Amino acid sequence: MQPHHAGVRRPPQRASEAPRTARGQLPPRAVPYYNAAHRALVPLALLVVHTVAPLTWPPVFAALCGWLAHISYDRAFGYGLRTKEGFQRG
User: Fold this and answer.
1) What's the Cα-to-Cα distance from 65 to each of 35, 50, 55, 58, rounded to whole Å?
2) Contact yes or no for 74/38 (Cβ under 8 A)
3) Which of 4, 23, 51, 79 has a CA that sits 20 to 30 A from residue 59's CA?
């Protein structure tokens, strides 16, 4: 067994030690990041910046369009933002 160092978090040793979440639930600490990445305003704003910026790079434009399409498909198939507990809003 290795010594535990102060300030260093060890990953769970067994699956039984991992935090429990219900099926389809995100861990609550991941919800703000998920919701921020799944708001259409973010890629739209970056597309505007990319369009008016003097330096343009087509792969960035393609990635932003893909990100926006991902969000659109999520909405079309009924997946939206999450509650603070990590469940789909419905």
Assistant:
1) 18, 11, 17, 11
2) yes
3) 79
